[in-house]
Structures are given as C-alpha cells and as structure tokens.
Amino acid sequence: MDGLHLLSKVARSCGHGEDSAYFDGWKAYDRNPYHPARNPGGVIQMGLAENQLSFDLIQEWVKEHPEASICTSQGAGAFGDVAAFQYYEGLPAFRNAIAKFMGRVRGGRVVFDADRIVMSGGATGANEAIIFCLADPGDVFLVPSLFDRDVRWRTGVKIIAVACGSSNGFQITTQALEQSYRDATAQGTNVKGLILTNPSNPLGTLLDRQTLKDILKFVNDKNIHLVCDEIYAATAFSAAGFLSVANIVEDMEPAADINLDLIHIVYSFSKDLGLPGFRIGVIYSYNDNVVTCARRMSSFALVSSQTQHFIACMLSDDTFVDKFLRESSKRLEARHAKFTTGLMRVGIQCLKSSAGLFCWMDLRKLLDRNDKECAEDDEARLWRVIIDEVKLNVSPGSSFHCTEPGWFRTMEVALKRIWAFVGRKIGPDVKTKKHRENHVFTISKSSKRLSFEDDNVLSPILSHSPPSQMVHTSYF
Ligand SMILES: Cc1ncc(COP(=O)(O)O)c(C=O)c1O
C-alpha cells in the first residue's frame, strides 16, 4: 500500500486479524450479504458468535425501566452525575453489579471482590490489556484451540498451540501442556503464560474440576500466568453447569500452595448478555499489581458512564437476572439440540458440547488426503468452497490454532444450505427429510454453484422480532 513505509512497525505489520485468511470469509459476506428477500443467494454470516436469542427479555426490561437511561424524562435526573463521571475505576454501582453477576453466573458459589474488577473495551480490550500487563514483545503464551483474535498484534507476543485432538474429545492434558512448554523453551522463547477460553470457543466444551486443577498445578509449577477468558460463562446448558477457575480458587485448601498472583480472568457482556455493542469487558485479577496496572491502562478503553449506569440498574434487578439466565440457557440448549440433530441427518457429527453459541463440526470426511500437511491445504480449499459456492462464512479450525485439520466452527443458521451442500450427490429428492436421513455424508469438492429456494435461516431475529436488514449469525 502506498505510503505505508511512513508508518510504524505495528501499522506496517500484518498482525491484525483482518489481514488473515480468516477474514476472507467476512469480506465475501461484505461483498454479497444475504438478505431473505433482496438477496437470498448471498453469503450468510456464520463467522460471528453473536447471541441475540434472549434479546427480547432485555428489550422488555428496557421498556419497563426508562429510568436506566439518562436520556429519558424518567432518567434525566441522574444526567449530571452520570454524564460528568470520568473516574476510570468505574461507577461503584457498576462494579458491584458486575461482581454480583459474575458470582451468580458461577452458581452463587464464588464471591468476587468489586475492587478487583477492572473495565475495558470488551473482552478484546481486556485480553490485550492483561497481556500488556504480563508480557513483553517476543514472549510466548501457550494456547489450546482458541480464539485469539488480535491479542498478538500490538503486544508483540507470540502464541504456541497446545495440541488437542479428537482422540480424547479435544481435552487439555498435562502431557500436551508439558510438551508445548518443552517445545517453546527448546526454541529459546520465554513462556509467560497459558491462555484458556472456558467455556471454549470454538469447541463449546466446559473444563471439568480435575482439568482445571491440573492446569493450575501446571502454571504454578512453571511459575507462568493463567489467563482464563470466561466470556461464554452463562451460555453453559449442561446440568453440571459452568465451573470457573474462580470456583477452584474458592474451594482450594489453604495448603494447596497455588500462587494466586498468577491467575487472571477475562469477562465481557458480549456473549452472555448478547451486548457486544456496549463494549463492556472486564479483567479480574487476583494479583494486586496487575489490578493497579490494568486499571491505569483501562483509561485507554473505558466503558461510557451511561452504559455503566444502565448495566448497574439492569443487573441489580435480581428477578430479571434470574429469569434471563434461566431462559437464555434453556433457549440455547433447545437451539443447540435442533441444530446438531439437523446436521446428524446428513451424517455430520459435531463434538459433544454443552455451552457456547456454535458447534464444532467434523468435516474430515471431506478432506481427500490424510497426511497432515496436505490436509491443512485441503481444509483451506474446502473452506473456500463453503464460502464461494455454498456461500456460508464458517470458521476453519486453523483459525483457532486447531492442530487437526477438517474441523469447522459453525452457527445454527442456514441448515437448508448445509443439507443441500452435503446432500448434493444424492439426487433431485435431496430436500426430502426421508432422503436426507437415509444417506450419509458423501460430497465432492468439485462442486457447482448451488441455487436455493429458501435458506431456512434459524435466527432469533426472525423468530422473536421483525426481520432484520442484515442477517448475521444472530445467535448461533
Ligand atoms: C473467546 C472470546 N474472547 C473474546 C471475544 C471478543 O469479545 P468482545 O466483543 O467482548 O471484545 C470473543 C468474541 O467472539 C470470544 O469468542
């Protein structure tokens, strides 16, 4: 690009996610966005993990509580106090409400200290700020299959994937952690920590108590940090529920001898409440120095005081919070079951999961070759077919550092397109349910352009409110 040489190294680098192949799917969507009436053959956005499934409950609350906005006649009395507020600790009511909500989402068994809540611009900002606090350029973080968008770009840290595969359901093992630590140190790098997402993006799985304890022991033994991105905490729908690293800390015996200074949690309201536009991110650290430093850094990405005020009002309504969490998890579970059953009808298996807004879809049968290097190219080729011809923007496993090619993250929309895609070889009756059930997954990648009568987009925007202008993933 002209004039780029005049800019900084960061500006010239290709470290931003937008420069990665992953964003090609987004660009394809931008060029040709799906619309149910105006552009039914357009690209459907399934690369965005949005959760609008329980938006109606929030909208209902907003209508009943105009005082939560300082721009209404009912709320304008607080205008001066709220609009002039600028301390980067955040409104006390906001921090208290977040601490209480985080505890509630973790089964009411953890008490979070409101003085340790540091705000940031979404989890993206929180993840970057915590890395700035913990590491220097060139330092390494170990990551099991993980969403890491943009964490590396401005911080200059590197990421080394921890091998996780289908043989044990993508579980994180101590052996795999040890191996990646050995590999990283053998390359002469300085390993500063381990980054987890729990519940996992892209897997939708939950870490169990023993795995969390093993991980704590691992970071403690190595004296490295543990950053737990728990942005999907309230999306868990299994009976066992979500177990946070904070639950383990809370239950720890005093003799456990774990250095709490190494433990940090990242949270946001982008997924659990489905409010990514509000840019509410949180760093919760057990390390006093990190809290102080992160709070100073937070002045670069504060949450607006009106948003803080609104969230404080909404989350202090216990009846609403209880209803929202109960209903949201019920709807997520129902939608997940519907989608995975639909995929199974054409022989597509998904990793068993019980949280998140997506499914980890196994398309390994579509890869021609088995040796790993070719399979990686194959995954990229298959992904192109899905974007260019099927016109679905799904996310390939490689964009999550998945070391086993052939896995794709998808959302619960456009089942009909997926059925048409995988059933293409079956013949003219492909759209009948009976046919789909009787056939297994056989598809050639040398596909032709498909045409669709209707995309069967299972979107809460469509089911709970009037059709949106732009249909994204909108829940799954
Ligand atoms: C695991 C994870 N962390 C962080 C983010 C970014 O969230 P936010 O919108 O709060 O910046 C996402 C968004 O998809 C995510 O999946």
UniProtKB/TrEMBL annotation:
This is 1-aminocyclopropane-1-carboxylate synthase. It catalyses: S-adenosyl-L-methionine = 1-aminocyclopropane-1-carboxylate + S-methyl-5'-thioadenosine + H(+). It comes from Kalanchoe fedtschenkoi. PANTHER family: 1-AMINOCYCLOPROPANE-1-CARBOXYLATE SYNTHASE 6, BIFUNCTIONAL ASPARTATE AMINOTRANSFERASE AND GLUTAMATE/ASPARTATE-PREPHENATE AMINOTRANSFERASE-RELATED. InterPro entries: Aminotransferase_I/II_large, Ethylene_sulfur-biosynth, NHTrfase_class1_PyrdxlP-BS, PyrdxlP-dep_Trfase, PyrdxlP-dep_Trfase_major, PyrdxlP-dep_Trfase_small. Its cofactor is pyridoxal 5'-phosphate. Keywords: Ethylene biosynthesis, Lyase, Pyridoxal phosphate, S-adenosyl-L-methionine. Residues 44-409 form the Aminotransferase class I/classII large domain. Belongs to the class-I pyridoxal-phosphate-dependent aminotransferase family. Transmembrane segments: none annotated. It is an enzyme of class 4 (lyase).
